[in-house]
């Protein structure tokens, strides 16, 4: 096994600020892929041209429900599931529809949307405020799994 050379950055003390904060990464992602409003997203539920993609973790789906008809794709697998060259490719995420990603509060979805754009997807956006904003605006929610069976 060959050791990978490390950059010669000075050591960082635990708890010291990072060179780039997570908030800065999210702001950069939102600049690349601006989110759409909850009101606009509500008008797209049931659209043949848009696939809502819930990138939260399975426990969140079970606890809080999902947007009706949303495809579930945990954040940790999303890039693999949309890539035709990946052994984990899921054609359901590459069927010609625009992807509308959402998570709990729009931080994970911002980063995910930006990653997909960098991979070459031009048909992706994400939900401003995430699922928490969706619920606050009385957006429709269905339980997951259907019927409450776990």
From TrEMBL:
**Ribonucleoprotein keyword on record:** no
Please report the stretch or stretches of sequence annotated as the Rhodanese domain: 46-143
What the entry lists under InterPro entries is as follows: Rhodanese-like_dom, Rhodanese-like_dom_sf
> Cross-referenced SMART domains, in alphabetical order?
RHOD
Record key words, sorted: Transferase
Disordered, as annotated region: 1-20
Single GO MF annotation: thiosulfate-cyanide sulfurtransferase activity
| Pfam families with a match to the protein in the record | Rhodanese
UniProt keyword annotation of Transferase present: yes
Protein known as:
Rhodanese-related sulfurtransferase
The scientific name of the source species is Tessaracoccus bendigoensis DSM 12906
């Amino acid at each position: 096994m060959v050791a990978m050379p490390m950059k010669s950055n000075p050591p960082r003390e635990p708890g010291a600020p990072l060179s780039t904060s997570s908030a800065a990464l999210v702001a950069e992602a939102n600049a690349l892929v601006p989110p759409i409003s909850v009101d606009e997203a509500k008008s797209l539920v049931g659209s043949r041209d848009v696939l809502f993609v819930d990138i939260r973790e399975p426990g969140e789906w079970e606890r809080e429900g999902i947007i009706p008809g949303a495809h579930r794709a945990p954040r940790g697998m999303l890039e693999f599931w949309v890539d035709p060259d990946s052994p984990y490719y899921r054609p359901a995420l590459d069927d010609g529809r625009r992807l509308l990603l959402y998570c709990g509060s729009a931080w994970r979805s911002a980063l995910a949307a930006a990653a997909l754009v960098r991979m070459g997807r031009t048909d992706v956006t994400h939900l401003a405020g995430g699922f928490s904003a969706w619920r606050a605006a009385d957006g429709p929610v269905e339980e997951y799994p259907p019927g409450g069976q776990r």
